[in-house]
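Researcher: I'd like a structural prediction for the single chain below. Treat it as a standalone chain; there are no partners to consider.
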Amino acid sequence: MSTNLAGFHTSNPVFTASGCAAAGQELAAFFDVSAIGGMVTKSVTLQPRSGRPTPRMAETPSGMLNSIGLQGPGIDAFLEHDLPWLAARGARAVVSIAGSSVEDYVALARKVRGQPGLAMLEVNISCPNVADRGTVFACDPRAAARVIRAVREQAHPGVPIFAKLSPDVTDIVAVASAVVAAGADGVSMINTLLGLVIDTDTLRPALAGITGGLSGPAIRPVAVRCVWQVHQAMPEVPILGMGGIRTGLDALEFVLAG
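Model: Treating it as a single chain, here is the predicted structure.
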């Protein structure tokens, strides 16, 4: 089941989803992290982030909302501790980067360029653009393209770049087309859907940050639909599919969709 994603060769098509296991150390107690196709890291930001206030998680039917806020140590600590840990174990590291401005993404791409152990770069563009009143990059094809173009100019030419897309758009094909035209080698989809849970005991939102990202089995049909739409429009573009996958048959749906 070897897989080739835009020149990135792996022994199998199974990857972790960004955010589910930080930089992989939590999983090492359960299996060899080098045995899967790729270890996608939690999205790394330029500076350390403490994240959003608690409570940050709320259970929903067939899923959950999270409002973590990209908590993390920042890129310098990641490059000092986490990426070397993955490289030492032979894991194929897919580093996910996130920023609040094009300049953030440029700086991140420069810092990871040439780092040992980096197999692929995932650009999480489902982040608010502070230069445009907080509009999410992934919800605007032009803004998404600007980020990817800037990252492509700074990243090592031999490292594939995948843009992580948001399902919270009316036309995901338009966004996918824009990022591919800007230099993305493929797309990752989907990120979480924006949701809100009200605690009917307190009569207030269950999350301190009010809204959060919906994940879990509930979003799988949306993810499969997005994969199918993009594959139908651009069958030559590699897609890393995710969203609500629990079983091999769940994964097969994504394979059949594209």
